[in-house]
Amino acid sequence: DCASGSSEAAVPHPAKECAVPSLASRMMPPILTALGYRRRFASAQATSDLVAARRLRPRPYGPPRILPRGVGVSVDQDHGWPLYTVFPSGAEPRGQIVYVHGGAWINQIALQHWQLVAELAATTGSRVLVPIYPLAPQGTAATVVPQVADLLKRLAASDGAENVSVVGDSAGGQIALAAALLLRDAHVALAHTVLIAPALDLSLSNPVIDALEPNDPWLVRPGLRAAVELWRGELPLDNPIVSPLFGEMAGLGPLAVFAGTRDITHPDCELLVSKARAAGVATEFHEAPGMVHVYPLLPIPEGRQARRIMARLLRGGQDILTAPGSVPPAD
């Protein structure tokens, strides 16, 4: 279980998962602090310096050279973006998942994202498509969100919307939900929209954040607001393409949200869940006490547990794959 760190625990009921944080998870805040995660967003200048450094020396975005056994990868171009596909080798894929990576709209896809992508391909038996979207300020909400929505719409047209899901973490969760809302406007409801600590209201004005922010070892608002200004471009903060929490939720397909309580995105996740349920959207909320930002991506028991839940959900409630050639959830 989460307290002992056992890898053999059954997936718990969503309302009761990870009630006692594991030792590994309790070590994450000091580790993140030591690695300087919070300092990157401590001020607008710090974030501006990071953007400048990334423009001078762009980070590589390709997948790791060695992928888990039973997983293959290919790459194509989609309207000028690199579009990677990670797939289970030796079997016909059973569905399509678009994964939109986080990174505050200014950071490139990272190893932890690729590890989750490979795991989802292996454990769900689906093709996972990863668009490498342009980062802010070259990419903005007005240009990126519609193109992600177009990719999802084309997949739904070819394979059926019931076979297409979107997953996004943090900034990628903002893009994923905003794109799903655009599809809903076109009367397309995806099989699943799965959000991992999504950014939902880019004004960052929820008053509950005030109490959480001092204890969040990763995210603070001064630098995030600087990143938001680059990302939103000319659009107002309350435009649903920028802040999907302001959109109407009725008509969305099934929604799942994963968020830890030691994360400043958590209060808006609570609002999203309430709003979606009130609109009649089938919604799961996997709330993890004491967990930090994007905890399902982290090498902790709670992260492993969340990834199992995610894989089962994306398989339509079926057990995750355990056939030869599949890989266990990564630690």
Describe the structure.
The protein is α/β, with parallel strands linked by helices. The chain has 9 helices and 8 strands. The chain has helices at residues 23-34, 44-56, 111-124, 141-159, 171-185, 209-212, 221-232, 266-278, 301-314, and strands spanning 71-78, 81-88, 96-100, 127-131, 164-169, 192-196, 255-260, 283-288. An 8-stranded mixed β-sheet has the order 1-2-4-3-5-6-7-8, sandwiched between helices. Helix 3 (111-124) links the parallel strand 3 and strand 4. Helix 3 (111-124) crosses helix 9 (301-314). The protein starts with 22 loop residues before the first helix and ends in a 17-residue tail after the last helix.
Class by alpha and beta content: alpha/beta
Q: Uncertain spans, ≥5 residues at pLDDT below 50?
A: 1-16, 322-331
Give, in spatial order, the strands making up the sheet with the most strands.
Answer: 1-2-4-3-5-6-7-8
Query: CA-to-CA gap between the ends?
Result: 14 Å
Average pLDDT over all residues: 91
Range of helix content: 25-40%
E-strand count = 8
Structural topology:
Layout: H1 23-34, H2 44-56, E1 71-78, E2 81-88, E3 96-100, H3 111-124, E4 127-131, H4 141-159, E5 164-169, H5 171-185, E6 192-196, H6 209-212, H7 221-232, E7 255-260, H8 266-278, E8 283-288, H9 301-314
Parallel strand pairs: 3-4, 3-5, 5-6, 6-7, 7-8
Antiparallel strand pairs: 1-2, 2-4
Helix pairs in contact: 2-7, 3-9, 4-5
